[in-house]
Description:
The protein is of the alpha+beta class. Helices cover 20% and strands 36% of the residues.
Amino acid sequence: MEIEHKYWYVLHAPDTKIQDLVRKIKTVLGDENVLFPIAIDRKLNRRRNLFVEKEFPLFYNYIFVKLGECDRGVEEFLQSSVNSHIKILCRSGEEKWAPLSNEEISKIKNTIMEVKQDSMTFKCDYDIGDRVKILLGPFKFFNGVVADFNKNKRTVSVNVFIFGRETSVDTDMEAVEKVE
């Protein structure tokens, strides 16, 4: 029995409901043959006094699909009247579908891994001993000195003065900003 070779292709789907398209394509091809990387951005909403996580596509409106020769029937699905706005990208000057090279797909996968690692690590502009201001929680607007970090839990220990006594307060790393 001959082993079928599968190659990665790039789809461009200029649609606001791209998540629905990804779900449809995954039902036809299977989860393992569709790559639509999502990144998460976590920002502090000071008005509501909480963190908001927002998902966004890493490669805006691009879906990566792995197709073999027997999957070419997917072309009818992709070009059907419901999904006629999806385009399968070709190399410049070519009219035939052009698969991504192994080098290109490995660069894409490395980029995805880097973004995931960056989203898991928080970069702070303060260090132990720096004066900071707490932005959230019951000690909001209190100033203190950074005593310790817990990078696994993404928390920071800040020593603040309450009723004339120094007290250690634990809070999220993102809920603290350096005071000049």
